[in-house]
Amino acid sequence: MSSDAPTVLSSQSSLPSHSSGTEKTVVLHNDSSIPKEVDEELTNPWDGYEENEMPEKTQSRPVFTVYCRLFSVAFITNMAVFISYAVRGYTSEKVAVVVVANLFIAILMRQDYTINLIFFILSSVPQSLAARAYHHGGVHTGSAISGIIWLILFAAQATKELAHGQEVVAQDNLSSINTNVSSLQVSTATVAVTYVILALLLAVVTFAHPSFRISHHDVFERVHRFAGWTATAPVWVQASGSVVWKVVLLTNDFKGGRSLGVAVIHAPAFWLMIILSVSLILPWLRLRRVDVRSVVLSNHAVRMYFEYGRYLKCIHSQCLNQLDTPIPGSFVRISSDPLFEWHGFATIPEPNMKGFSLLVSKAGDWTTEMIANPPTKLWVRGIPTTGVLTIAPLFRRILFVGTGSGIGPIASHIFAEKANHRLIWMAPNTRATFGDHLVDQILSKSPDALLYDTHKHGKPNMVKLIHHVVDEYQPEVVCVISNNSFTQKIVYGLRSRGILTLGAIFDS
To answer: Does this UniProt record's set of keywords contain Zinc (predicted)?
Structure first.
C-alpha cells in the first residue's frame, strides 16, 4: 500500500523474534528499508480509536436475513401448491410426488458439487448478489420443512383413504387417449412405511434446531446422518412403489395394466429418487484415508499438512484439473472415525506448493485429542467445498477480520495475493499460540496487518476498532471470521452503519 505515513506493526513483528525474548514494535518507513525501534506505548496502530465517535446507525436490524428470505421463498411456494391442491382436490399419490420433490431439493442443496456450482454461477453476477451466496442453506431448510409438512398431509390423506376404503384412479398417460384406467387403493404397508419415514424426519428436524445443534453438535450430526440414511430406504419403497404407480411395494396388485418398465420410466418421483440417492452416495465414493503431517503449534492449536491430490484430464482441452486441490475460501471434512463424526476446516493452500494445510484449534473433545495426540493419517470424503470467503476475490479492497483460528480461511486469500487487503487479527498470545512460522507467513504477505494481543491489551470494542480501520482503509467489504456471537455482533454493528459486511451464518 502506498502512503506517506509509516506502516506500524504490532509487537508480533514480521521480523524474526529476538533471542532475548524482548518484544519490540517496529516501524517500517516507506522511504527507508532500515527498521527503527520506537516506543510501543505511543505507536500502537489502534491508539485513539476509543475516542472516535461512531456514526449513528442508519439501518435497523434486518427482520429477515437472506437465509430467511430463501427459506420463505421455498416455503411460500409450497403453500401456493398446497392452496391449489386444497381448491382443486388431491390424492395421496399427488402429495407423495411433492414430498419427494421437496426432499430432493433439500438434499441436493447440501451436496458438494451443488454448492460449488452455486458459488461458480454467482461469481459471474453483480457483487451484491454473489456476496450472499453462502445463504444457500435457506433453500435446504425451507424445502426440508415443507417436505415434512407435505409428508404429514400425505400420512393423513393416506390414512383416511385406507380407513374409508377410498380408491384413486390411475390413468395411462402414455398417449393422448387414455385406454387404461384402473382403480388403486392405498395399502396398509404404504401407510406403515409413511409413519416410519415421518418419525425419522421429525427426529432430524428436532435435533437440527439451532439451540440444540449448537449445544450438542455431535448428537445432531449423528441423528442427521443415520436417521437420514435410514429414511432413504423406505422413501424408495414408498415413492417408487406403492404411492407412485406401486412399482416396488405390492407391484402385482397396484401396477394396473402397465408393465414394470413403463411404470418406472413414467414415474417422476422415481427419477428424483435416483438423483437424490446419487447425491447422498457420491461424497462417500470419495472416502479415503490419507497421510497427514501434524505440527503442534501450542497446547491450543495444531497445523495439519495434506499432500494428496487427484488429477483429471479435461475433456475439451489439454489442461489438468486438480479435483482435490482446494481454492482460497474452501473447506474439507476430516475424521478419525468416519462413521460417526466429521469436522469441517478451512483449507490453507499456498501458491506453488502441493497440497494444503488446516489450522485446528481447541474447541471440544475431538480437537483436544488431535492436539494432544497428533494424527499421521485421517479420513477425508467428498471434495473441497466453497465457503463464505470464496467470494472475496470479487472485491478490490477487502478488510479481513479474524479472531483466533479464524485466521485459517483468511490466510488462504492472503497467501494467494489476488486482492488488495488489510487484516485485523485478534488473539491472545498470537505467536505463543499459533507459532512464529504462521505469524511470519501472514506478516510477509500482509505487512500492514493489525495483530491485537488480547492477553496484553485486553478485549477491545471491536466494532469501534474495525470502524477506525474502515475509515482509514476504505474497503469495499469487511469479511469477519469468528465465533457465532462475535460474528453477529460485528456484522450488525457495521451493516447498520452502511458498511457491507459478510460473516458465516453457522447453519450446519
So the answer is: no
As given in the structure block, the three cell numbers for residue 391 are: 467470494
DSSP state of 417: T
Q: Would you say the pTM of this structure is higher than 0.70?
A: no
* Same domain assignment for residues 359 and 419: no
Q: Is 365 helix (H, G, I), strand (E, B) or coil?
A: helix
In a domain, 490, yes or no: yes
Q: What is the DSSP string of 139-164?
A: HHHHHHHHHHHHHHHHHHHHHHHHHH
Looking at the fold, whether 364 and 397 belong to one and the same domain comes out as: no
Q: How far is CA 81 from the centre of its chain?
A: 29
- How far is residue 302's CA from residue 126's CA, in Å, rounded to a whole number? 38
Return the CATH number at 430.
Answer: 3.40.50.80
Structure-block grid coordinates of residue 474: 476504505
Domain count, the chain: 3
Residues with pLDDT less than 50, the chain? 1-42, 169-183, 239-255, 311-321
User: Would you say the C-alpha torsion 158, 242, 223, 76 has a positive or negative sign?
Assistant: negative
Cβ atoms of 274 and 232 within 8 Å: the answer is no
Domain containing 359 equals 288-386
Residues 74 and 114 placed together within one structural domain of the fold: yes
